[in-house]
Write a structure and sequence with these properties.
With 456 residues, this protein is mainly α. It has helices spanning 18-21, 25-28, 30-49, 62-73, 77-90, 93-105, 109-112, 124-161, 181-201, 216-221, 227-237, 253-281, 306-328, 339-344, 347-366, 372-380, 387-396, 402-410, 417-425, 431-439, 449-454, and strands spanning 166-171, 174-180, 205-206, 241-242, 285-287, 368-370. Helices cover 61% and strands 5% of the residues. Helix 5 (77-90) crosses helix 6 (93-105) and helix 13 (306-328) packs antiparallel against helix 15 (347-366).
């Protein structure tokens, strides 16, 4: 078999859906993880060299800083392979990054003198906790948030465009008080915006406190250095939150919070995908025709809601992974076990399924066309929904048993305009109230729905 390609990849996120997930390749791949580790190792060395109380680290010259920056900017897939080759001997991926850097330092005389300050006083989890937080931060800002914002924008556009398009509601699957199509999109928009804000607000954290979280080695070498302040500054320089209290492993509570926030977004979008699928099935929407697409291999007439089905399926896979991350990652036996390592490597897989879902849903939303004739037909066929406003006005005038009278009049019955008109005229109500009720139609009985949709 040849090298892995979209046709030979085992995972569909790198195969069938590679055109939707390529934006994650430089971030969430093995190459990406190596690069984040490399950044953390280099920046830790710089931080030590610029700190008072650690004279042996030597303040780095501009030449040395440029060299270190070039190691990062020049980090290619071929360079990552060199780390993998070292790992083949060490059987330890973080130690392989340290040895790779030592090899690089051999080309710079000044840096040769401080190679032992690479990974100084660190345990692997110091590097990994920072690296994974940086990875998740980039996944959020560079990939997922733009896709979520695109969905919010699309939902808002539909809310505004269809603010006045009346549709029959269905509660418990039965005809209910009308809404507008735009208001239903505004509902989802508001939910996603709230959860988007929660996702953005999740604070990712890191630690640099050694093998059991107590700065043991740090203090043995430099007992007079304020290691807590040094570590806090280091994390905050990356825009991360410093976690003061940890064992060897950063407890990953922030990753659990991140995953839970994404899970809620996806759950709302599963709800939307299923509703839109159902509205298509009852004819409220048509889908724009793509000329060469095939809906069914056997039935030429079909235009299937595949984008919403694809979105629902991928959100489900993403949420299964996110739930596992959230429940597993905060748990570690005693001060450290390694069962989180293989799990963390799948963070990008969950993000990929999220991204596939967001893109599929966006595509589906762009193809919707309203079938107002079908919506109007449903409204006209369900005049019994006007029982609600009639009994509510009767209550206003304290007509006893208003609800019960309308229940007897309307429940389980097919009503027409003549029957409703006769009932209204028989009521002991002021003429202007009767006129208002007689003018009501299912299409006009929408309350504040248009206004709410337009203000979304």
């Amino acid at each position: 078999m040849s090298a892995v390609s979209p046709l030979t990849a085992i995972s569909p996120v790198d195969g069938r859906y590679a055109n939707k997930t390529f934006v994650l390749q430089d971030i969430a791949s093995e190459y990406g993880l190596f690069k984040y580790r490399l950044v953390v190792e280099i920046e830790w060395l710089k931080h030590l060299s610029s700190s008072a109380g650690i004279p042996e680290a030597n303040p780095l010259s501009p030449s040395a800083c440029r060299f270190l920056d070039n190691v990062v900017t020049g980090f290619t897939e071929n360079e990552a392979q060199k780390i993998k080759d070292i790992e083949a001997s060490t059987n330890h991926d973080v130690k392989a990054v340290e040895y790779y850097l030592k090899e690089k330092f051999a080309a710079h005389l000044e840096l040769q003198g401080i190679t032992e300050f690479i990974h100084f006083a660190c345990t692997s989890e110091d590097i990994n906790s920072m690296a994974y937080s940086l990875m998740l931060s980039d996944i959020r800002t560079k990939v997922l948030m733009p896709s979520i914002e695109k969905l919010v924008s699309s939902l808002q556009n539909h809310a505004h465009d269809w603010a006045d398009t009346t549709m029959l509601s269905r509660t418990h699957g039965q005809p209910a008080s009308p809404t507008t199509l735009g208001k239903e999109f505004a509902n989802v928009q508001a939910r996603i915006q709230a959860q988007r804000d929660g996702f953005k607000a999740v604070q990712l954290s890191g630690k640099m406190n050694g093998a059991s979280g107590n700065y043991n080695a740090h203090c043995a070498a430099y007992p007079d250095v304020d290691w807590e302040t040094l570590a806090a500054e280091f994390a905050e320089n990356f825009g991360l939150t410093w976690n003061r209290y940890t064992a060897q492993a950063e407890p990953h509570d922030c990753i659990a919070e991140y995953c839970d926030a994404l899970h809620r977004i996806n759950t709302i979008l599963i709800d939307l995908s299923r509703d839109l699928w159902a509205y298509i099935s009852i004819g409220y929407f048509r889908q724009k025709i793509v000329k060469d697409e095939v809906g069914s291999s056997a039935m030429p007439h079909k235009v299937n809601p595949i984008d919403f089905e694809n979105a629902e399926g991928n959100f489900g896979i993403a949420n299964a992974l996110l739930s596992h991350f959230s429940s597993k990652l905060p748990i570690s036996r005693w001060q450290r076990d390694l069962s989180d390592s293989t799990v963390l490597r799948n963070l990008g897989v969950a993000a990929a399924h999220c991204e596939i879902g967001y893109r599929s849903l966006s595509k589906g939303l762009s193809k919707l066309e309203v079938n107002q004739d079908q919506m109007q037909e449903d409204l006209d066929a369900n005049l019994q929904i006007l029982a609600e406003p009639i009994q509510t006005v009767m209550r206003k005038y304290k007509i006893e048993g208003a609800y019960e009278k309308l229940k007897e009049f309307s429940r389980g019955k097919a009503l027409d305009r003549d029957k409703i008109e006769g009932f209204i005229r028989s009521l002991d109500l002021p003429d202007h109230e009767k006129d208002n009720l007689l003018s009501l139609t299912p299409a006009s009985y929408t309350g504040l729905a248009p206004k709410l949709a337009k203000n979304s």
